[in-house]
Automatic annotation (TrEMBL):
The keyword Manganese does not apply. Keywords: Oxidoreductase. Belongs to the short-chain dehydrogenases/reductases (SDR) family. InterPro entries: KR_dom, NAD(P)-bd_dom_sf, Peroxisomal_Beta-Oxidation, Sc_DH/Rdtase_CS, SDR_fam. CDD domains: hydroxyacyl-CoA-like_DH_SDR_c-like. It comes from Streptosporangium lutulentum. Pfam families: adh_short. Signal peptide: none annotated. This is NAD(P)-dependent dehydrogenase (Short-subunit alcohol dehydrogenase family). Residues 14-210 form the Ketoreductase domain. The keyword Isomerase does not apply. PANTHER family: DEHYDROGENASES, SHORT CHAIN (PTHR45024), SCP2 DOMAIN-CONTAINING PROTEIN (PTHR45024:SF2).
Length: 303
């Protein structure tokens, strides 16, 4: 890390796939990586916010802008949520640029409804784009990254998943699902030099312009989020399996912690009731980084 400190972070020779890069955050990530020398596959289905429709326009416009700025990019209008689409997205990188180093899983849709009114279709569609899409594109990319012993994957979670959000049971489930994917891919990619992290952003885009206060537009920029994504995509970033909240000027690690806990052999229902305060305690918390570490903590408490 130290050697990188003084210099601008560059991506010359690196190839990135960015899904959902025709609008909003993905567009901004694509411009940021291209400006720093990465060759970019700009993927976008070009549909509406709820995932209906399709258009080649948004991906083509971003590619044109990157080329106008002197960068290299190709467009893909494939659907991240289908195995064929995911395969085609990764293949576009190999065909155009001969390699793949970075995947930013960013494509997303919204189908908000209060829980009592949420249809099975609205649940399935949202999970399909966010979770299945990130799984499928990462799955296609993984063998390429593994073979070259290097890769960076950035997944897009959300504060709605980490902390809950009224009317977004489908979206929250999907976004917390991406935390699980990030942690396990981080573990499985470790030996091959593949670092996997997730962001939980807030930014002014078409997804949020109707819900965020007007004064957020100037401060909660997509560029502020892209600065973090660009760092997480760089070879100097050695962190893996982590989640970061990012919005306006602030970046923070969000971690899954477990309280110190309370333990007693053969505890009864009433024991649990009577020790609820200790069970709920947060300090001193632990931050296990694998299932094994967490299980070992429980075992230790019983010895
Ligand atoms: P956006 O609607 O501007 O961008 C999403 C893009 O994904 C669109 O261009 C859309 O066409 C594309 N897309 C949708 N389905 C696709 C599919 N099946 N295949 C390929 N492309 C598809 O919204 P955004 O705010 O830029 O969102 C980007 C990501 O950030 C999403 O995953 C979103 O959930 C997440 N996010 C955004 C915010 C925010 O504050 N804007 C907050 C938390 C999370």
């Amino acid at each position: 890390m130290r050697g990188w400190r003084m210099s601008e972070l560059r991506f010359d020779g690196k190839v990135a796939v960015i899904t959902g890069a025709g609008h909003g955050l993905g567009r901004s990530h694509a411009l940021s990586l291209a400006e720093r020398g990465a060759k970019v596959v700009v993927n976008d289905l070009g549909g509406t916010l709820d995932g209906t429709g399709a258009s080649a326009g948004p991906a083509a416009d971003v590619v044109e802008l990157i080329r106008k700025n002197g960068g290299e990019a190709v467009a893909s209008t494939d659907d991240v949520a289908t195995p064929e689409g995911a395969k085609a997205i990764v293949q576009a990188a190999i065909d155009a640029f001969g390699r793949l180093d970075i995947v930013v899983n960013n494509a997303g849709i919204l189908r908000d409804k209060s829980f009592g009114k949420m249809s099975v279709e609205a649940f399935d569609q949202v999970l399909a784009v966010h979770v299945r899409g990130s799984f499928l594109v990462s799955r296609e990319a993984f063998p390429h990254l593994k073979e070259q012993g290097y890769g960076r994957i950035v997944n897009t979670s959300s504060p709605a998943g980490l902390f809950g959000s009224f009317g977004q049971a489908n979206y929250s489930t999907a976004k917390m699902g991406l935390v699980g994917l990030t942690k396990t891919l981080g573990i499985e990619g470790a030996r091959a030099g593949i670092k996997v992290n997730a962001i939980a952003p807030i930014a002014w885009t078409r997804m949020t312009e109707s819900i965020l206060p007007a004064e957020f537009e100037a401060k909660f920029t997509a560029e502020a989020v892209s600065a973090l994504v660009t760092f997480l995509a760089h070879e100097s970033c050695e962190t893996s399996g982590e989640v970061f909240s990012v919005g306006a000027g602030r970046v923070a690690r969000v971690f899954v912690a477990e309280g110190p806990g309370w333990s007693k052999d053969d505890h009864t229902v009433e024991d649990i009731r009577d020790n609820w305060e200790a069970i709920m305690a947060e300090q001193p918390y632990l931050t296990p980084t694998t299932l094994g570490q967490q299980t070992a903590t429980s075992m230790k408490a019983m010895l």
